[in-house]
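Please go through this protein, sequence plus structure tokens, and consider how the sequence yields the tokens. Keep your notes short.
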Amino acid sequence: MNESSQSTQDQFNHWKRETIAQTRQRLRRDWGDYPLTILMAIGAVFGALNSMYSSVSVRGKEIATLRALGFGPTAVLLSTIVESVLLALVGGLLGGLLAYLAFNGFTASTLNGQSFSQVVFDFAVTPELLVQGMKAALIIGIVGGFFPAIRAARLPVAQALREL
């Protein structure tokens, strides 16, 4: 390689490093530090919505009985949200425990056969990560239980008591 092509290659590599750094900076600015976490949380919210809608539809008679006994729509709404939050927190605790047992201190590495360079990943499940996970579980529980709770609160008492 002559000197001018080497200089061009160096300029290209410098530009490529700058572009990657700028892209990372833009992603952090736009999405925060956890884009994958946000996408996974959206999926978890849909799972919570599905579970809570199923719970409300299966227990329609029980909800209608509570309403007939004098419990208002607000009490039904709050009880459904509390159930959703408790389920999400139990799931967050179990997930945190499993992550700690499976990945704390786990080390994985890759090896590039051409350059013999190695990248090592050393996983550490810290208390800060566990707290962040529990916060995410709390938010998922609240959001995932909100719309099914509204449906439960609006459930017509007479219609629900007639259904089997």
Remarks:
- The two ends are 82 Å apart (CA to CA).
